[in-house]
Amino acid sequence: MILLKKLSMAICLGLSLGLSAGNAFAGQESEAASIGEQILDKAKDKFVKAAGGQISSLLIDAFFGSSGPSYVNLSEESLQAIQERVHKELVGVAEYEYISDLESIQLSMRYFNDTARNNTPDIGVLGSLLVDSDRLITHQALNSQFNEQYFYMADTLALASSINLSIYVERHLQGFINKNAVRARAHYLANRLENFLVAKKRADLPLEEECERVNDQSDLYDHIVCKLIDPHGNSQARADLYKSDYGDYYDEEKREWESKMQQTRAIYYSDRFSEIEDVISKLRNF
Question: Distance between CA 110 and CA 116 in Å, rounded?
């Protein structure tokens, strides 16, 4: 009987320790910042080569052309992930306008990419890209006075910041600004993004363990349900724990639950913060 109970308990734990459905989109949220990291890597490579006398267009890279990733889709998925996690409407008109502005910039970047490939870069479009990308990082959707939950757009801001800096790098490669201007912009973007990250952590951390005894007379065993809860009340993981027939406190199952909590916290942190931290680091070390 004890063996059967242990087996059913293990099955129960195995089924119930996974992440909740409310986190199905969590990876999508961090993907926008991850693409920003890749853009910064390419920009840094061109920036270093330019310092060595090897000057060529950055925006000619396939990352900025028609075969590159869709910044718009990444940002939309990021906002969907926010809605799924917090369980309330966060995406307002201003945030959809932001997506529209991002789409416009991507179209212009693809056009510039085509002209640069033909060795006839449209410098007029490059000037417009500077203005438009500056507007993107100062958009009202990112303004705390207009949008109280502005910090949830941190992942999209990380992507937009990398795009903005890539345009600064391109202007340096085309001879319009010096390298100090590029580095000054990189530090400005890092400071702005770090402010968003601090606010986002304040809203999304910490994760707390909550355990509650189940009063079910049909259950012959002492039954406790433990959950790992985020500040919005969403369950990130759960486990059903039982006492044995002899009344001891499920030491093995408890250790497994504690291990799962540690893993869940690491995944939760990685999905929401680590990619943004990496973008900040790359900007500071540009």
Answer: 10
pLDDT tens digit sequence for 181-206: 999 999 999 999 999 999 999 999 99
The secondary structure of residue 20, as a DSSP letter, is: P
Q: CA 71, CA 32: separation in Å to the nearest integer?
A: 7
Amino acid (one-letter) located at 40: L
**Order of all β-strands in the sheet with 235-242:** 208-213, 223-229, 235-242
Residues 6 or more apart whose Cβ sits within 8 Å of residue 193: 154, 157, 158, 161, 276, 279, 280, 283
Residue with more model confidence, 95 or 27 = 95
- Report the C-alpha dihedral over residues 61, 66, 69, 73, rounded to 10 degrees: 150
Q: How far apart are CA 141 and CA 92, in angstroms?
A: 9
* Strand positions, DSSP E, 83-229: 208-213, 223-229
Q: Which of 138, 145, 156 is nearest to 99 (CA)?
A: 156
Question: What is the residue whose two structure tokens read 């500071």?
Answer: 284
21 is written with which tokens? Answer: 């459905």
Locate the DSSP E strands across the chain.
Answer: 208-213, 223-229, 235-242
Higher-pLDDT residue of 2, 61: 61
58: DSSP letter: S
Query: Minimal CA–CA distance to 168: which of 189, 153, 152?
Result: 189
DSSP 157-177: HHHHHHHHHHHHHHHHHTTSS
Sign of CA dihedral 30, 106, 194, 35: positive
Tokens at 95, concatenated: 């945030």
Supply the Cα-derived Rg of the chain in whole angstroms.
24
Kindly state the tokens that stand for 42: 């390419």
CA separation for the pair 197, 251 (Å, rounded): 38
| Residue 89 pLDDT greater than 80, yes or no | no
AA letter at 248: D
